Automatic annotation (TrEMBL):
Phylogenetic classification of the source organism: Bacteria, Pseudomonadati, Campylobacterota, Epsilonproteobacteria, Campylobacterales
Pfam families xrefs: Phage_tail_fib
Record-given protein name: Phage tail protein
Residues of the Phage tail fibre protein N-terminal domain: 4-148
Membrane-spanning segments: none
Organism: Campylobacter jejuni
């Protein structure tokens, strides 16, 4: 690793221990780090640091993505520790020997009583022929994830969430489209006709005279009277249910057509069906869906004149109306 103004090197003790570890096949357990306020020039001869201001266990170890021979050690100083200047850092093994030493840019670590507080994370890069020679037994209570690691995980999770959302959106749209098609093809009317029968079975044979036919009226006034076919043809039967002829699914734009936190009233004469991927749902001030963790796929019916809203921004918003 090329040296710059600030760098980290192995001490002679560190070199000897890594050579021995390579020969034996055993790794070296790097355990802790110490910070010094003294300005130094790192040297292989160094066996200890002077003017120690802070020491703790190493927070994490990782192999550099761009160079597998670089080992990155993260040394964390919490916000409630401070009031000192940091100019040097040393890495120690479980035996307490100084294996690596480095200098850092002059950094003051404040403490809250001075009017400011901050966390400090020092990254130490060690160049080894085999990164597996470093063993790091971490205390779970002090392990911290680097920002790059967290960002990478966040991107991966977002990609998975987007993929799942698209998958379920497509699947549920297919289901609802089939359901709407079934209703709009009047299969409901066909099926219900099977159950409409006379009160008693009757058989008509031979020539019959029907004496109670309407003459000047268009509508039968008694149950036993026939009614004019023209009247029947002109009658409009209004079914009050969902999926009647004329209703269709509408995918609504968010937020121009629909947005969370706003009440929407069903102003149509028939019920409508709503399909959302969201959290809390209210119908006429009654909370019907409660989920404070994740968004869910939900569908519900809004009677004519009723209103509804969701308190979380949905990713999909559709209405059958």
């Amino acid at each position: 690793m090329a040296k710059s103004e600030y760098y980290t090197i192995l001490t002679k003790i560190g070199i000897a221990k890594f050579i021995a570890a390579r020969a034996s096949g055993n790794g070296i357990n790097l355990k802790s780090f110490k910070l010094s306020s003294k300005v130094i020039l790192p040297s292989e001869e160094m066996q200890s640091l002077e003017e120690i201001v802070y020491e703790a266990n190493i927070s994490s170890k990782s192999v550099d993505e761009s160079n597998p021979n670089y080992v990155n050690l993260m040394c964390h100083v919490p916000s409630d520790v401070g009031g000192f200047e940091v100019n040097a850092v040393g890495v120690y093994d479980e035996a307490g020997d100084l294996l690596a030493v480095g200098n850092v840019p002059r950094t003051y670590k404040p403490i809250l009583k001075e009017g400011s507080a901050k966390e400090l994370m020092i990254k130490i890069v060690m160049e080894l022929s085999n990164a597996e020679e470093v063993i790091l037994k971490l205390d779970p209570s002090v392990i911290m994830a680097s920002r790059d690691y967290v960002d990478a995980i966040k991107v991966e999770l977002n990609l998975k969430i987007d993929a799942l959302t698209q998958k379920y959106d497509a699947e549920f749209k297919k289901v609802w489209d089939e359901f709407a098609k079934y209703l709009l093809e009047n299969k409901f009317n066909t099926e219900i006709a099977k159950y409409v029968t006379l009160a008693t079975n009757q058989t008509i044979t031979g020539a019959k005279d029907f004496t109670k036919l309407p003459t000047s009226i268009l509508q039968a006034t008694k149950d036993e009277e026939f009614t004019n076919k023209r009247y029947v043809d002109l009658r409009t039967i209004n079914y009050g249910g969902i999926g009647q002829k004329g209703q269709a699914w509408h995918k609504l734009n968010i937020p121009s057509e629909r947005t969370h936190g706003v009440w929407y009233t069903n102003n149509t004469p028939t019920p409508i069906m709503v399909y959302l991927i969201a959290r809390d749902i209210y119908i006429d001030d009654i909370r019907i869906i409660v989920n404070n963790e994740t968004r869910e796929v939900v569908s519900f019916i809004i009677p004519s004149g009723s209103r509804y809203k969701t308190t979380w921004s949905p990713s999909v918003w559709m209405e059958l109306r």
